[in-house]
Protein backbone atom coordinates (compact mmCIF):
# COMPACT_ATOMS: atom_id res chain seq x y z
CA UNK A 1 0.00 0.00 0.00
CA UNK A 2 1.36 3.42 -1.00
CA UNK A 3 1.75 5.85 1.90
CA UNK A 4 0.33 9.25 1.05
CA UNK A 5 1.95 12.51 2.09
CA UNK A 6 -0.08 14.64 4.56
CA UNK A 7 -1.04 17.05 1.75
CA UNK A 8 -2.12 14.16 -0.50
CA UNK A 9 -4.11 12.64 2.38
CA UNK A 10 -5.87 15.97 2.99
CA UNK A 11 -6.56 16.34 -0.73
CA UNK A 12 -7.98 12.82 -0.86
CA UNK A 13 -10.24 13.50 2.13
CA UNK A 14 -11.54 16.74 0.55
CA UNK A 15 -12.06 14.92 -2.73
CA UNK A 16 -14.07 12.13 -1.07
CA UNK A 17 -16.21 14.49 1.02
CA UNK A 18 -17.03 16.57 -2.07
CA UNK A 19 -17.58 13.57 -4.35
CA UNK A 20 -20.39 14.58 -6.76
CA UNK A 21 -22.56 11.54 -5.96
CA UNK A 22 -22.29 12.17 -2.20
CA UNK A 23 -22.93 15.91 -2.59
CA UNK A 24 -25.92 15.16 -4.84
CA UNK A 25 -27.36 12.70 -2.31
CA UNK A 26 -27.05 15.11 0.64
CA UNK A 27 -28.41 18.00 -1.43
CA UNK A 28 -31.30 15.86 -2.61
CA UNK A 29 -32.35 15.07 0.96
CA UNK A 30 -32.12 18.73 2.02
CA UNK A 31 -33.99 20.06 -1.01
CA UNK A 32 -36.78 17.49 -0.76
CA UNK A 33 -37.15 18.18 2.98
CA UNK A 34 -37.50 21.91 2.31
CA UNK A 35 -40.05 21.66 -0.48
CA UNK A 36 -42.50 18.94 0.56
CA UNK A 37 -45.32 19.19 3.08
CA UNK A 38 -45.39 15.72 4.62
CA UNK A 39 -43.14 12.91 5.80
CA UNK A 40 -44.52 10.43 3.22
CA UNK A 41 -43.73 12.94 0.45
CA UNK A 42 -40.21 13.37 1.87
CA UNK A 43 -39.58 9.61 1.70
CA UNK A 44 -41.20 9.36 -1.71
CA UNK A 45 -39.09 12.21 -3.13
CA UNK A 46 -35.90 10.91 -1.49
CA UNK A 47 -36.42 7.39 -2.81
CA UNK A 48 -37.13 8.73 -6.31
CA UNK A 49 -33.88 10.70 -6.22
CA UNK A 50 -31.71 8.01 -4.66
CA UNK A 51 -33.15 5.18 -6.76
CA UNK A 52 -32.99 7.01 -10.07
CA UNK A 53 -29.97 9.31 -9.71
CA UNK A 54 -27.48 7.40 -7.57
CA UNK A 55 -28.18 3.65 -7.68
CA UNK A 56 -27.90 2.97 -11.47
CA UNK A 57 -24.55 4.79 -11.76
CA UNK A 58 -23.29 3.10 -8.59
CA UNK A 59 -24.19 -0.35 -9.92
CA UNK A 60 -22.40 0.34 -13.20
CA UNK A 61 -19.35 1.80 -11.43
CA UNK A 62 -19.18 -1.26 -9.17
CA UNK A 63 -19.23 -3.45 -12.27
CA UNK A 64 -16.34 -1.44 -13.77
CA UNK A 65 -14.36 -1.64 -10.52
CA UNK A 66 -14.81 -5.42 -10.44
CA UNK A 67 -13.60 -5.67 -14.04
CA UNK A 68 -10.57 -3.48 -13.35
CA UNK A 69 -9.83 -5.06 -9.96
CA UNK A 70 -9.67 -1.71 -8.15
CA UNK A 71 -12.07 0.82 -6.66
CA UNK A 72 -11.71 4.21 -8.32
CA UNK A 73 -14.14 6.64 -6.65
CA UNK A 74 -13.01 9.42 -8.99
CA UNK A 75 -13.65 7.42 -12.17
CA UNK A 76 -10.30 8.73 -13.31
CA UNK A 77 -10.67 7.63 -16.92
CA UNK A 78 -13.05 9.85 -18.89
CA UNK A 79 -14.65 6.91 -20.71
CA UNK A 80 -15.60 5.33 -17.35
CA UNK A 81 -17.72 8.40 -16.54
CA UNK A 82 -19.96 8.41 -19.61
CA UNK A 83 -22.32 5.53 -18.77
CA UNK A 84 -22.88 6.56 -15.11
CA UNK A 85 -23.62 10.10 -16.28
CA UNK A 86 -26.02 8.82 -18.94
CA UNK A 87 -27.78 6.64 -16.37
CA UNK A 88 -28.05 9.57 -13.94
CA UNK A 89 -29.37 11.80 -16.70
CA UNK A 90 -32.01 9.24 -17.65
CA UNK A 91 -32.89 8.76 -13.97
CA UNK A 92 -33.17 12.53 -13.46
CA UNK A 93 -35.47 12.80 -16.47
CA UNK A 94 -37.77 10.07 -15.14
CA UNK A 95 -37.51 11.61 -11.67
CA UNK A 96 -38.55 15.02 -12.98
CA UNK A 97 -41.70 13.53 -14.43
CA UNK A 98 -42.48 11.74 -11.15
CA UNK A 99 -41.78 14.87 -9.07
CA UNK A 100 -44.03 16.93 -11.32
CA UNK A 101 -46.88 14.40 -11.31
CA UNK A 102 -46.69 13.11 -7.71
CA UNK A 103 -45.33 15.91 -5.51
CA UNK A 104 -46.97 18.89 -7.23
CA UNK A 105 -44.40 21.41 -6.05
CA UNK A 106 -43.41 23.99 -8.71
CA UNK A 107 -40.05 24.85 -7.12
CA UNK A 108 -39.07 21.21 -6.72
CA UNK A 109 -40.09 20.61 -10.32
CA UNK A 110 -37.94 23.54 -11.50
CA UNK A 111 -34.94 22.23 -9.55
CA UNK A 112 -35.42 18.75 -11.05
CA UNK A 113 -35.46 20.27 -14.56
CA UNK A 114 -32.27 22.21 -13.77
CA UNK A 115 -30.63 18.97 -12.62
CA UNK A 116 -31.59 17.22 -15.86
CA UNK A 117 -30.12 20.12 -17.87
CA UNK A 118 -26.85 20.01 -15.90
CA UNK A 119 -26.48 16.23 -16.16
CA UNK A 120 -27.23 16.28 -19.89
CA UNK A 121 -24.60 18.98 -20.47
CA UNK A 122 -21.99 17.16 -18.36
CA UNK A 123 -22.71 13.91 -20.22
CA UNK A 124 -22.27 15.52 -23.63
CA UNK A 125 -19.07 17.34 -22.63
CA UNK A 126 -17.64 14.18 -21.04
CA UNK A 127 -17.94 12.28 -24.32
CA UNK A 128 -15.18 14.51 -25.71
CA UNK A 129 -13.40 16.07 -22.72
CA UNK A 130 -12.75 15.25 -19.07
CA UNK A 131 -14.46 18.16 -17.32
CA UNK A 132 -14.33 18.41 -13.52
CA UNK A 133 -17.53 16.97 -12.09
CA UNK A 134 -16.44 18.07 -8.60
CA UNK A 135 -16.15 21.72 -9.66
CA UNK A 136 -19.35 21.60 -11.72
CA UNK A 137 -21.31 20.09 -8.84
CA UNK A 138 -20.13 22.55 -6.17
CA UNK A 139 -20.50 25.61 -8.41
CA UNK A 140 -23.90 24.45 -9.68
CA UNK A 141 -25.17 23.78 -6.17
CA UNK A 142 -23.94 27.15 -4.93
CA UNK A 143 -25.57 28.94 -7.85
CA UNK A 144 -28.81 27.10 -7.13
CA UNK A 145 -28.66 28.26 -3.49
CA UNK A 146 -28.01 31.85 -4.56
CA UNK A 147 -30.96 31.81 -6.98
CA UNK A 148 -33.44 30.17 -4.59
CA UNK A 149 -32.18 31.30 -1.18
CA UNK A 150 -30.39 34.62 -1.67
CA UNK A 151 -27.04 36.32 -2.20
CA UNK A 152 -25.46 35.30 1.10
CA UNK A 153 -25.11 31.78 -0.27
CA UNK A 154 -22.53 33.12 -2.74
CA UNK A 155 -20.08 32.45 0.10
CA UNK A 156 -20.48 28.81 -0.95
CA UNK A 157 -18.23 29.54 -3.93
CA UNK A 158 -15.36 29.63 -1.41
CA UNK A 159 -15.77 25.85 -1.08
CA UNK A 160 -14.41 25.66 -4.63
CA UNK A 161 -10.95 26.71 -3.42
CA UNK A 162 -10.14 23.54 -1.43
CA UNK A 163 -11.95 21.40 -4.02
CA UNK A 164 -9.87 22.80 -6.88
CA UNK A 165 -6.69 22.50 -4.83
CA UNK A 166 -7.46 18.86 -3.97
CA UNK A 167 -8.15 17.89 -7.58
CA UNK A 168 -4.91 19.53 -8.72
CA UNK A 169 -2.95 18.01 -5.83
CA UNK A 170 -4.18 14.52 -6.75
CA UNK A 171 -3.48 15.20 -10.45
CA UNK A 172 -7.07 14.32 -11.34
CA UNK A 173 -7.61 17.41 -13.47
CA UNK A 174 -5.85 20.16 -15.35
CA UNK A 175 -6.57 23.81 -14.48
CA UNK A 176 -8.64 24.12 -17.68
CA UNK A 177 -10.83 21.16 -16.72
CA UNK A 178 -11.46 22.71 -13.30
CA UNK A 179 -12.21 26.14 -14.77
CA UNK A 180 -14.51 24.50 -17.32
CA UNK A 181 -16.42 22.63 -14.60
CA UNK A 182 -16.75 25.78 -12.50
CA UNK A 183 -17.99 27.90 -15.41
CA UNK A 184 -20.38 25.25 -16.70
CA UNK A 185 -21.83 24.63 -13.24
CA UNK A 186 -22.29 28.33 -12.54
CA UNK A 187 -23.49 29.66 -15.89
CA UNK A 188 -25.67 26.74 -16.95
CA UNK A 189 -27.38 26.49 -13.55
CA UNK A 190 -28.12 30.21 -13.59
CA UNK A 191 -29.49 30.13 -17.15
CA UNK A 192 -31.54 26.98 -16.52
CA UNK A 193 -32.97 28.48 -13.31
CA UNK A 194 -33.92 31.64 -15.19
CA UNK A 195 -35.48 29.66 -18.05
CA UNK A 196 -37.50 27.17 -15.96
CA UNK A 197 -38.72 29.78 -13.48
CA UNK A 198 -40.30 31.95 -16.19
Question: Keyphrases for this structure?
Answer:
about 200 residues; mainly alpha; about 80% helix; globular
Number of helices: 8
Distance between the terminal alpha carbons, to the nearest Å? 54 Å
Helical fraction: over 70%
Instruction: Note the run of SSEs as H and E.
Output: HHHHHHHH
Uncertain ranges? none
Number of E-type strands: 0
Principal-axes shape call: globular
| Structural class by SSE content | mainly alpha
Mean pLDDT: 92
Strand content: under 5%
User: Biggest β-sheet: count, sense, barrel?
Assistant: none
Kindly provide the radius of gyration, computed on alpha-carbon positions and rounded to a whole number of angstroms.
Answer: 17 Å
Account of the protein in words:
The protein is mostly helical and 198 residues long. It contains eight helices and no strands. The chain has helices spanning 6-17, 20-35, 39-68, 78-103, 106-126, 133-149, 160-169, 175-196. Helix 6 (133-149) runs antiparallel to helix 7 (160-169). The longest helix has 30 residues, at 39-68. The chain is globular and about 50 Å long.
Amino acid sequence: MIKLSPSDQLAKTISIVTNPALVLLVTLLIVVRNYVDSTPDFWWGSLIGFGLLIVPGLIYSTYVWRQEGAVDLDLTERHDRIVPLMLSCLGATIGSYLVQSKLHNPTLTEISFILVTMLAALTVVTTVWKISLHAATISGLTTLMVVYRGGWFALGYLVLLPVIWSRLQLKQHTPNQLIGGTLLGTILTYLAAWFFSR
